[in-house]
Specification:
This protein has about 450 residues and is an all-alpha fold. The chain is built from 22 helices and no strands. Keywords: Cell membrane, Membrane, Transmembrane, Transmembrane helix.
């Protein structure tokens, strides 16, 4: 059954309510219920039953269960490195002993560098950058909203430019399917690499956030949050803390990612499971922290488990939002929201305009569904088909698909990457979305202009 314009209603309702009410949970539930109401012929009882069944069925999906468990357990890691004195030790080392970080700008530059260097998985990128630099930002009076923006702008954009991670594996896999179907010819990896220079939004987002950091450029609500924040000092534990208590668990967390990708991919990084890899990585980090803290005499076994449970409970609100975000993703999939939006471009066949049309459609789909990967899966085959049939540059169109997916994802309050960036920085989710939006729109506008120009030059 085709739902047409009605298929857009649930995600737009959830997004509008989230922005107006600032209550993400109620907004998502409202959008989800509206979707199931439409799917069940406006029978409210059937809609409620379908809603509950769908939420329960989420946990049967291995990657979703692992993602939720990862989110819970990474909260435990974050709490443990704080309670052990690892965070305080890091702050003391960077600001007092080595005096490497002397200002809020320095703290944000550190977050930026972490975002560039840790490109294995976008969630890990945000969480490590946020965990390491949040206490530094607090010390120097940088708002957590600004930190969340830096984490978000250097996670998905950076990961979308790299072939050797889960993002690259997905995109190369989608391109491979087009080669197999005869739509494209040549090496899928080569085609993806040649499309990277056309991933305009990702490149602009990475450059723009550096300008914002270096020039202290605060616009919109970001200016308000920066003016309201006051520096806070992180108290040192009785033994003074030590940097190793933070670095060891985080190095294990980061280092286990490529190892786990290699293992789950049977010797091929590109075939590895991202959700399984982050799950294994956080388990290894927790195990090592137990050995380091308990056997090393930093914490008692009881204190370790107390911090562990507190960390899990800290993440419950975020996990609830993720569950609802995954559920509304299922609703939009069942209603064919992405396919409906993509079909709107069916009559627009000018080769020079195809790239910008694909970029805008991908942006809208990612914004409405909250998933860049889902957008890639929908739009890459459509984009390639449009490019081949009209003579548009294929690599440029693939770049437009990826750019649009990342841009729409950045603007969407129901995106899992946006939610995780809020969590990493420890700020209100809607405040992060609202304060990031002006920068994302600037980047999106510039990217759209570049796709128009490139479409004209390469047609």
């Amino acid at each position: 059954m085709e739902f047409g314009l009605l298929s857009v209603l649930p995600p737009l309702l959830a997004i509008a309510l989230a922005i107006v009410s600032r209550d993400v949970v109620i907004s998502l539930l409202t959008g989800i219920f509206a979707g199931f109401l439409i799917l069940n012929n406006f029978n409210p009882l059937d809609a409620v039953i379908a809603l509950l069944d769908n939420i329960i069925s989420l946990f049967a999906e291995g990657w979703i269960a692992k993602t939720l468990l990862f989110s819970l357990m990474v909260g435990a890691v974050m709490r443990l490195v704080v309670d052990s004195g690892g965070v305080a030790g890091l702050v003391h080392f960077l600001t007092q002993k080595s005096r490497t970080i002397r200002s809020g700008k320095g703290a944000l530059i550190l977050a930026y560098i972490i975002g560039l260097l840790i490109f294995i998985e976008s969630s890990i990128t945000s969480l490590v950058a946020g965990t390491v630099t949040r206490p530094l930002c607090d010390k120097f009076g940088v708002s957590r909203q600004k930190l969340a923006y830096v984490c978000d702008a250097t996670s998905a954009p950076v990961c979308s430019l790299i072939a050797l991670n889960g993002w690259g594996a997905l995109l190369i896999g989608l391109i491979t399917a087009q080669v197999t179907d005869g739509m494209l010819s040549g090496s899928p990896t080569r085609i993806f690499i040649e499309s990277i220079p056309f991933n305009f939004y990702a490149l602009i987002a990475i450059a723009l956030v550096l300008v914002v950091i270096l020039r202290g450029w605060d616009v919109g609500s970001m200016r308000h949050y920066e003016r309201q924040v006051t520096p806070t000092k992180l108290p040192l534990p009785a033994d003074g803390g030590h940097i190793s208590r933070m670095l060891v668990p985080l190095v294990v967390l980061i280092g286990m990612m490529p190892v786990s990708l290699y293992y789950t991919g049977n010797g091929n990084f590109l075939e590895g499971s991202g959700s399984t890899a982050v799950f294994y990585a956080v388990l290894a980090s927790l195990f090592v922290s137990f050995l380091q803290y308990v056997l090393g005499g930093v914490m008692s076994r009881e204190a370790w488990f107390k911090s562990f449970y507190h960390g899990l409970s800290d993440m419950l609100p975020i996990v609830l939002i993720l569950v609802l975000a995954f559920t509304i993703g299922n609703v939009t999939k069942s209603m064919g929201t992405g396919q409906y939006l993509a079909s709107l471009a069916g009559d627009l066949v000018s080769p020079s305009l195809i790239p910008v049309i694909v970029f805008l459609l991908s942006s809208v789909i990612a914004f409405a569904t909250g998933t860049s990967w889902g957008t890639f899966s929908i739009m890459l085959p459509i984009g390639v088909s449009l490019a081949v049939s009209t003579g548009a540059n294929v690599e440029l169109v693939i770049g437009a698909v990826v750019s649009g997916g990342v841009f729409g994802d950045h603007c969407s309050p129901i995106s899992d990457t946006t939610i995780i960036s809020s969590m990493a920085a420890g700020c209100n989710h809607i405040e992060h979305v609202n304060s990031q939006l002006p920068y994302a729109l600037m980047g999106g506008t510039l990217a759209a202009g570049l796709f128009v120009l490139a479409g004209l030059l390469l047609a």
